[in-house]
Amino acid sequence: MAKEETEIRDLSEKVLLEFEAYDRPHKVWTKEFYSSVIVIAFLVSVILYFIEGFMPVVVIWALVFMLWAMARTEPKMTKTAVTNWGLKSFEKTYRFEEMTNYWFETKWGTRLMRINLNGIPWHLVVVIDSKKEDEIKKIMAERVVYLEPEKTWLDRAIKWMGEKLPLE
């Protein structure tokens, strides 16, 4: 009987590491960026209106509005925990069994952990505390494969265009 009780206790969720970080990466854009985006959106809208009609124009301006709204909304601090079951973020636990691989990257000066999942959502992006990156990597490496995706020709082309045609 005592052995069964220990096995039951071992199945309980234990927090291995907990940290606070913003819920998404954030960057404050300049007025030059917004004016460039609006000019490009207007030109593409005019072209697509004559080719396809009104619907692509609505989609373009919805994307411009989303960009503006996300930039104007400050991200919130959220608690994220790595437990013996998986990653607990936004009141949801993503189990280690659902994760295929993970890697770290930097975006807009913020350190991110990206995780590929087996089910929906297919990809998870978690802003991490850069001071705890080594601890997170140690815990995750025991359960999930650390694998950075290889850079494709499209990745390199987008990076080159971003350097040659900055919107700011």
The profile of the biggest β sheet is: 4 strands, antiparallel
From the N-terminal CA to the C-terminal CA, the straight-line distance is 68 Å
CATH architecture of the largest domain: Roll
CATH superfamily of the largest domain: Pleckstrin-homology domain (PH domain)/Phosphotyrosine-binding domain (PTB)
> In order across it, which strands form the biggest sheet?
1-2-3-4
Low-confidence stretches: none
CATH class descriptor name of the largest domain: Mainly Beta
The 3D shape can be described as elongated
Strand content: 25-35%
What name does the CATH topology of the largest domain carry?
A: PH-domain like
Helical segment tally? 5
Give the mean pLDDT. Answer: 80
Structure description:
There is one protein chain. The chain has helices at 2-10, 31-51, 55-72, 133-141, 153-164, and strands at residues 15-22, 77-83, 86-89, 92-95, 99-107, 110-117, 123-127, 145-146. It contains five helices and eight strands. A four-stranded antiparallel beta sheet has the order 1-2-3-4, covered by helices on one side. Strands 7-6-5-8 form a four-stranded mixed beta sheet, covered by helices on one side. The protein is elongated, with a radius of gyration of 21 Å. Helices cover 41% and strands 28% of the residues. The protein folds into two domains: 13-24 and 75-146, PH-domain like, CATH 2.30.29.30; 31-72, no CATH class. By secondary structure, it is α+β, with helices and mostly antiparallel strands. A hairpin with a 2-residue loop joins β5 (99-107) and β6 (110-117).
